[in-house]
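Thread: Newbie trying to understand structure tokens

Hi all, I'm a second-year student working on a class project, and my supervisor (Dr. K.) asked me to get a predicted structure for one chain before our next meeting. I've only ever worked with sequences, so writing a 3D structure as a token string is new to me. If someone could post the tokens and maybe explain what I'm looking at, I'd be very grateful. Here's the chain:
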Amino acid sequence: MAGASFAVKVVGAAVTLFITTADDAVWLVPYLVSPSLPSGAFALHSAIFLGVLQFFILVSWGLYALLGEALENVRVGVLSLDEFLELIAATGCWIYVAYLIYKKWQKKKRRAAAAKAKSD
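---
Reply by user tm_fold:
Sure, no problem. This is what the structure looks like when written as tokens:
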């Protein structure tokens, strides 16, 4: 994509961001189907969700416009900046998953202790 125009890169980034975050829209479903929430709640939360997405697309676009060319040649040790940021992101995800597993394990342990105490 070295010869692609700036607009093509921005459209590609916007589509990629939309596709990778579309599953995050699942939190909107309760606002759509819940009869106990006001009818405007779904519209409000949808607008906030889409607004935040668009905000980050514009921020990414602006950062690339300002720093994109300068950052393409940055290296961190033997890694390019892209590889380094991907490594940080993947490491962060694994740490978060480990934290969630630990929390689930703690919850199971507490429930087992509570059930044992209740049965005694």
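A couple of things are worth pointing out once you decode it. The first strand starts at residue 75 and ends at 76. The mean pLDDT is 80. Feel free to ask follow-ups in this thread.
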